[in-house]
């Protein structure tokens, strides 16, 4: 499997694990030094993300990850995509449309 296919496979595994609240799978996929900026603009670590996933009781129903693209740049890759879905809450229903950007650096250990 080439590097591009490996990264797209990992992205797909992430997209399947997240709505299932599969903390073990996400822990395996995400690098220990991973950080991101969430929808509220807060910087969160891998540990904080896994805590959020584990304590969350809802996900978007239905949901869809699409428009996934991968760009390779020597020792780095950028994956972009879109998450869309509907969340039903006590006070009604709202629609989510969120773009995602992931960066992967090749680790040559």
Molecular structure report:
With 109 residues, the chain is α+β, with helices and mostly antiparallel strands. Helix content is 29%, strand content 41%. The protein contains 3 helices and 5 strands; from the N terminus they run ααββαβββ. It has helices at residues 3-17, 23-29, 46-55, and strands at residues 35-37, 43-45, 63-73, 76-89, 92-105. The protein has a 3-stranded antiparallel sheet, covered by helices on one side. A two-stranded antiparallel sheet has the order 1-2. β4 (76-89) and β5 (92-105) form a beta hairpin. α1 (3-17) packs antiparallel against α2. The longest helix has 15 residues, at 3-17. The radius of gyration is 15 Å and the shape is globular. The chain starts with a helix and ends with a strand. The relative contact order is 0.17. The mean pLDDT is 80.
Helix content range: 25-40%
Question: How would a crystallographer describe the biggest sheet?
Answer: 3 strands, antiparallel
Outline type:
globular
- Average pLDDT reading: 80
What does the radius of gyration come to?
Answer: 15 Å
Distance between the termini: 19 Å
Query: Helix-strand pattern, N to C?
Result: HHEEHEEE
Please report the number of helical segments.
Answer: 3
Count of strand segments: 5
Low-confidence stretches: none
In percent terms, what proportion of residues is strand? 35-45%
Q: Strand order within the widest sheet?
A: 3-4-5
Structural class: alpha+beta
List keywords for this structure.
5 strands; 109 residues; two-stranded antiparallel sheet; 3 helices; globular; three-stranded antiparallel β-sheet; alpha+beta
